[in-house]
Write a structure and sequence with these properties.
Shape: globular
Helix content: over 70%
Order of helices and strands: HHHHEEHHHHHHHHHHHH
Radius of gyration: 21 Å
Number of helices: 16
Distance between the termini: 27 Å
Oligomer: single chain
Structural class: mainly alpha
Strand order of the largest sheet: 1-2
Strand content: under 5%
Low-confidence stretches: none
Length: 361
């Protein structure tokens, strides 16, 4: 890997992944209809639409970085592995949007909304919302299993391939339990900070940072010494990522995030921001905040009041400090083991951690 500034290296990874995704998507679009019919192609196209919406491709980039930092050189193979991880991410986003009842993702209708519109436009029988969600689940499943097919077909030693597949599937179990915890946190009468931290780590840190790095490292032939050494960096970076994401979820700009900023409050999402406010806000503000959490009829005025509470009680400042603290611990851990890996990749990971804190979407 050439020694490039972080933003340029991330852009190079993204370009390679996007190109591979485009080639794969074109093939799947062309073959699905003839093999399974027009409705199957509509469902598949909805999945491919989500996959093609881009984003920063951080997970795919980390697959490639993990591979290169441990001496891997097969660019074609690792780009296809990165595509598979991005496909799994699209599958997870579709399910997450159904569970959160979200209408927008990256500035466009969510997949279940797209397929509800397909139901209406084709004058099909039944309830459009239900059919849209049902078809979206099928879109997610086909995409997730197609990703497994790509991983199983990687042109690498069979033992390394099986290790990578094992890591991915073990991580998805952790992610599912993290999502369960996150959902229960929204509806449970009492939610502890420990419950919120469990969701943060299981749902995000393992899935977003540790998993792709370990997949790439293992495909390069790395052993447990390397994957164990990167663990603390990955988990602290993942925690910083999710805390920052939760801040953006409430204080971000809709045009930049592609989502409605009111969604997290309307869904009743329990984050460290919310937990801090419920401990430190006045009794009056706590009552108002609780009345807004999980309220489908949340108004703009109510949402603005929630933002004010989170700022005035110190919750926003506290969350930013926690994210920065995790980022510092991540970098310290990375520097402790940096002699094991290529310096240009270590620089990329250091830049990634810093970049996650400063992002606006």
């Amino acid at each position: 890997m050439d020694s490039l500034p972080f933003t340029e290296q991330l852009a190079a990874y993204k370009k390679a992944i996007d190109s591979d995704i485009q080639a794969y998507s074109t093939h799947i679009h062309q073959t699905t209809g003839g093999q399974y019919g027009e409705h199957a192609r509509a469902v598949t196209d909805a999945y491919l639409d989500m996959l093609g919406r881009g984003g920063k491709r951080i997970r795919g980039a980390l697959v490639m970085a993990g591979y290169e930092m441990c001496g891997g050189t097969d660019r074609h193979m690792i780009t296809r592995a990165a595509t598979a991880i991005e496909m799994i991410h699209a599958y997870i986003l579709i399910i997450d949007d159904i569970q959160d009842r979200s209408k927008l993702r990256r500035g466009k209708p969510t997949v279940h909304e797209m397929l509800a519109a397909y139901h209406r436009n084709n004058n099909l029988k039944g309830d459009s919302s239900h059919v849209g969600a049902a078809l979206a689940l099928n879109a997610a499943l086909t995409g997730g299993h197609a990703a497994q097919v790509l991983l199983a077909g990687l042109s690498v030693d069979a033992e390394l391939r099986m290790k990578a597949i094992g890591i991915v599937n073990a991580t998805m179990i952790t992610t599912a339990h993290g999502q369960t915890t996150d959902i229960i946190n929204e509806v449970a009468p009492e939610v502890s900070e420990e419950d919120i931290k469990h969701a943060l780590e299981w749902k995000t840190a393992h899935y977003t940072v540790l998993n792709p790095l370990c997949v790439g490292m293992v495909l390069a032939g790395a052993g447990c010494e390397d994957t164990n050494a990167i663990r603390e960096y990955a988990l602290h970076t993942g925690r910083a990522f999710q805390i920052t994401d939760d801040i953006i979820g409430v204080f971000g700009d809709d045009l930049k995030t592609g989502k409605n900023a009111k969604d997290d409050i309307r869904e009743g999402k329990r984050t460290l921001l919310i937990a801090y406010a419920l401990r430190h806000a006045s009794a009056k503000d706590k009552k108002l905040l609780l009345s807004c959490l999980g309220n489908d009829a949340l108004t703009d005025e109510g949402f603005a009041a929630c933002r004010h509470i989170l700022t005035s009680c110190g919750a926003l400042e506290s969350a930013r400090a926690m994210a920065a603290g995790h980022a510092e611990q991540a970098v310290r851990s990375l520097e402790q083991y940096q002699s094991r890996w290529k310096p240009e990749t270590v620089a990329f990971l250091r830049g990634l951690t810093a970049g996650l804190l400063g992002r606006a979407a």
